[in-house]
Amino acid sequence: MDKESLKQAYARLHSLLQQDLDLTDQPADAVVNYRQLRQEAERLEQSALVALASQTVSAEEVAQLQAQLAESSNTLEASIAGLQVAVKPGLPALVVEAGPREKAEGTPASSSAEAVPAEKSIARVTETNLATNAEKPATDQNPAVKPDLTAQAAPSIAEEKKAELDKIRAVADAVEKIEETQAKAIDYTVVYLDKQTGLEVWREKKSYTPVTKENELDKDATITVKPDISTIKELEGYRIEGAQEKPLTLSPSKDNVIDFAVATAGKKRGVRAVKEVGNDTTAILSTVGDWSDQAFKETFSISTRLTETPNAGDYIDYYFDNLSVWHLVGSIKYKDVVIGNATVIRTDDPYYDSYHPGKVAKTDITRGAINQTLRVTFNEQARNYSNISYEFSTENKQVGATLSSESYTLTNSIRTSSKTLATTTTNILKSKSIYSSVRAWISGIFIFRYR
Fold first, then answer.
1. Triad 298, 303, 309: Cα angle to 5°
2. Is the four-CA dihedral 45, 47, 53, 57 of positive or negative sign?
3. Which parts of 307-419 are beta strand (E)?
4. Which of 72, 102, 217, 312 has the most CB atoms in a 10 Å sphere around its CB?
5. Which residues does 199 contact at the CB level (< 8 Å), separation at least 6?
6. What average pLDDT values come out for the chain (451 residues) when binned by 10 residues?
């Protein structure tokens, strides 16, 4: 959350509260008004410090507090300005004692009309003035001048308040520094894999906080990861096998993952089962028929974007009806890194069966081409990336179809477990002729006579 505006409003109000005003000889109502405004401002200042240090304050609360700080600053500033120019009525003119330089040069003392403003110099009352007032009866003295006990107590109260605020500000500054450091933390994941099966047993999220501010958020950092699994309930009975610590280069721009092998001599623990990865996949498909009685040509492209980060062993299945994908078997790469492997896990091939007598009874041979399921299985490298995407395609690949004495239509489609991605139809021409052959072998001794 952006708190910059709140910080600026706080800084302005704090600056006004730092002004050391001399309230002596100021109008009583103006002083009372100023103190009330200052008390409210100090309350808002404390609220601002708490909000700046909080990680849970809402944007609405920040905006409301910012408006209150601005209003308090405006009223307090106006009150301060009024105190600086106010002149208390009925007071005798204060005699400003000339400085040494003025005495030496014989400069006459300023009159009351030429007195230096109170905010720019300190008027010193001479002993003569004080003595004169002291000799007068109380009834002859200016009734407007009364001992201001509140004014005498004000410096003590102000000092206590200032000391209290200084402590709060120190705490807020410390919290802010901690927040700044935490904001630069880089997250990473430690994955624990079963040594025998290679499957994931558990994972935990951790974060690394740079020690110095020079290590900015957009820079990589290399750390040594040495996990302690004794405190992880889910790994009770397990021990780390092999390397007990490993280096890891952290980058804010990727998912940082490191794995450790674990094993246990006790009872088997439950492991995270592999699953099909969430994905967003699209496909384009076209075929060319009407040119052969035993084949057609396929052209397609498939684009997949993962919507979650896969674990090693997780997969995606692609179903191809009357389409061939043998040529797509192999490695799957992302950013030039092998993140998985594509294999054919199911094949149903009427065309192949029709050319291999005895494999399937003739009566069971159906019209069609090859049906296959292609599985992409992800490896441990895939866990290092988010938003993985990849493509595979083929163009004008010839696919065999069963012969028939009549023309027929194939339905070709590409599917995933959740939806049909693309579909089309292909016309297969009837066979011009269906050949059969008979072979015989005769064994023995043959004698040929000529006449």
1. 140
2. negative
3. 315-321, 330-334, 337-348, 371-378, 389-400, 408-415
4. 72
5. 193, 271, 272, 274, 312, 313
6. 82 88 84 90 88 81 90 91 60 43 44 42 40 48 51 62 73 63 73 86 85 55 90 88 90 85 67 85 92 82 95 95 92 94 87 57 66 94 92 92 83 95 92 52 56 50
Q: How far is CA 350 from CA 54, 319, 364, 401, 437, in A?
A: 69, 16, 9, 8, 21
Of 249, 274, 397, nearest in space to 328 by CA: 397
H and E: helices and strands count for the chain: 7, 15
Question: How far is the C-alpha of 348 from the C-alpha of 371, rounded, in Å?
Answer: 5
CA–CA separation, 95 vs 110, rounded Å? 8
CA distances from 222 to 191, 215, 226, 360 (A): 18, 11, 13, 61
Give the tokens for residue 435.
């050949």
Report how far residue 299's alpha carbon sits from residue 62's, in angstroms, rounded to the nearest whole number. 58
Evaluate whether 30 touches 83 at the Cβ level (below 8 Å): yes
Q: What is the pLDDT of residue 299?
A: 96
Give the DSSP letter of residue 121: S
What pLDDT does residue 1 have? Answer: 60
Cβ distance 251 to 218 under 8 Å? no
CA angle 144, 150, 155 (to 5 degrees): 125
Q: Which amino acid is at 150?
A: T
Q: Which of 390, 377, 384, 373 is nearest to 334 (CA)?
A: 390
CA distance 446 to 439: 19
**Residue 407: what pLDDT?**
86
Q: Cα–Cα distance between 277 and 298 in angstroms, integer?
A: 27
For 138-154, letters b (16+ CB in 10 Å) and e give: eeeeeeeeeeeeeeeee
